[in-house]
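Chapter summary example.
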Amino acid sequence: MARSFSEQERENIRNSILKVCKQNWTQYGYKKTSVNEMCRQVGISKGAFYLFFESKEVLFCEVLCLEQKKIYAAASEIMRKYRGKAGVAEALKLIYREYDRNNFLYNADSVDFTILMNKLSVEQKRNIEKSNDMSRKLFLKHPHLRLKVDEEVAVSVIYSLIMTIKNKEIFPDNHVEIYDFMVDHLIDDLYEE
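The structure predicted for these 193 residues follows.
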């Protein structure tokens, strides 16, 4: 007979699965992260895993969306705390550092990510798209700033700037310092107070 979990145990196990998934996804990628290994790390059976998540894909979709929401909330808080261009610059720096810690956030064009996306339901894909749109809205609808450029140009510049993370190994110097320098200098060309 299967063991039942208390509400507290369920919450702790679910959070542990999410944490282990994020760590393994960052280290090994989607395809090489196995349900069996995550269950071993959490200390549950594979059957118990399916009490928490319908499938591996549902878990990965949730991890991605939760991580994007967490980053969005932190960036929003920075922009509330530091109004104006400085807030936008600090929020962009935070996002870059989070992407640096969690490579699954920016590897959307990898074969590994394509395999995941092909296994997701239409609803799960929509959830990921909604999570992606949060950042777009954050940087376009700022109450204390106006864009100096067209919205699509601004989005493209911000996206390109963040995606320099994909080339961090080829920079001859510290990629975080280079990114910060670019943000600090581009922010004046994107916004006016």
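To summarize the output: The beta strands are 146-147, 191-192.
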